[in-house]
Amino acid sequence: MRRLHLLQAWAVLALGACAGASLAAPQIDGRQVRVPAADAQQFLAGQLPHRQDMLGGLAEVTVSRPELAIPPGTRMQLALDVAVAMAGGAPVPMGRLELTSALRYDPAQRALFLEQPRIEEFRPSGGGQGLDEASRGLLNAWLVDYARKEPVYRIDPALAAMVGGLDVASAGVENGQLVVTFNQDIGAMAGAMAPAQAD
Q: What digits encode the pLDDT tens for the residues 81-105?
C-alpha cells in the first residue's frame, strides 16, 4: 500500500512540475522540502481574511492583507491588517501588525505553523501612539491562538503521501524559503519510483 502511495505521489508531483507556475509545487532537495516565500504568500492570501473570537466572544479579531517575507536569519516576517469588533458590532480597523516568527511542522496536519511569534511593530490606523496595554494584551492572546491553530502553509496531498511516514528533523527558514528537513532523502525516494511506475 505504501508503495502505491509513493507511486501516486511521484506521478502527481511530476505532472505538477510540467504544468507551470500556476500549479507550483514545493521543491524537493535531498532530505528537504522547500517552499518559496511567494508560494507561502499565495497560500496565506487564500486563507484570509480570518476571523477569530476572543475574550469569550466579547471581541472578534479579523486579520487580512497578509504580506510574508523571509529576510536573512532564522525568522520569517508577516504583516497583517487587524480589525476588532466588540460585542457583535462592526469591525473597526486597528492598524497594521508586523510580527516575526520561527516555524514548526505538524506531521499530522502536514502543515507549517508559526512558532514563538513576536509582535515587532504596530502602526495604528489613522496615526497614533501604538498599542495601549489592553490592545497589546488582546493581540498577544490572539497571536498565541492563531499560531496554534492556523497554518502558514499546508503541503499538497501528493507530497504529504510521500513524507507521511517520515520523521521531521527540523523546520525553519533558509535563503528566502520555508524549509522542512526530514530524516530520509525524499528526492531519492521520488526518483526510485519513476522506473517502477513504467514497469
A: 999 998 778 888 999 999 999 999 9
pLDDT tens digits for 119-130?
999 999 877 777
The residues that bridge with 158 in the sheet, in sequence order, are none
Distance, in Å, from the CA atom of 193 to the CA atom of 5, rounded to the nearest integer, reads: 10
Q: C-alpha cell of 61?
A: 479579531
Return the ∠ at Cα 177 (arms to 152 and 97), rounded to 5°: 45
Grid cell, residue 31, equals 532530505
The type of residue at 138 is L
Burial 133-171 (b: 16+ CB within 10 A, else e): eebeebbeebbeebbeebbbbebbebbbbbbbeeeeeeb
How many alpha carbons fall within 13 Å on the CB side of residue 130?
8
